[in-house]
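We examine the record.
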Amino acid sequence: MNWKGFKVRVAMISVALPLLGVLVFLLPWRTHLAFNLLVTAVCVVGSLEVVGLLGARRIPVSRFLAPVLAGTLPVAAYLQTAGIVPGVELQLLMTVAAAGIILVRSIIFQRKATLRGLLAYAGASLLALLYPAFFLSFITRMTGFAEPSLTVAFFLCVLFGDDMNAYFVGSLWGRSTRLNLPVSPNKSAIGFAGGIAGALIVALLFHWLAAGFPHRGLWPDIAIDAAIGIVGIVGDLVESGLKRSAGVKDSGVIIPGRGGLLDSVDSLALAAPLFWFLLVLVPAA
């Protein structure tokens, strides 16, 4: 068991949860503006870390434009969610516009000497634009639900429980059930099971303490929780694959002992759109 890594996770959550609790529950004014500014900052820093991963492999990428445009995606989601620009699917429009700008910049404004790297530059820049910003902007959209504070808190706590228990169980008992995945050889079947179990435990606690939240009925709530728990684990594997491809251990150095922001929000990124769509599609009980 890597107790040092586990202690770092506990310390990070001990700091992050109270901070997020203040932003989500005590500063809800203007459709959780303070919290959504944090989401925007995370999107920009996350994009910069993707640029860094690509740079580690000497892949040409838009180092400035892609992160700046990445920051507009959660902003567009906020403007739509807050009703400042009503009646328009602004997040989708901004995503399409930003991708178009990246492609135009990649293809048209190139010197002849750099044309051979055009495909790599365009693809890498689109990756830095969309990951993680497009996915995390759905957390901003969660603040538009009827119970925004509980919705965001539920999502974050479930994914934190998923990550913590997967790490704890996998470190203690995962050696014999390692899946030997190329992107993350130490990931184990029992670790995956432990992560989903941790997510379910948190969801059941929420269901009990918050009067049945998220109010889809016990079994639909459990199904929703299991789905985002599974996708959260997949999100961790996606980021692990990016790091392994880049030949680096961490996506950055912004969090002492933990690495970059991507190392901490990778599970949230892929799970956020799924959770948002499930809450929209599954009617309240």
Q: What stands out?
A: The radius of gyration is 19 Å. Residues 3-281 form one domain. The chain is about 70% helix and 0% strand.
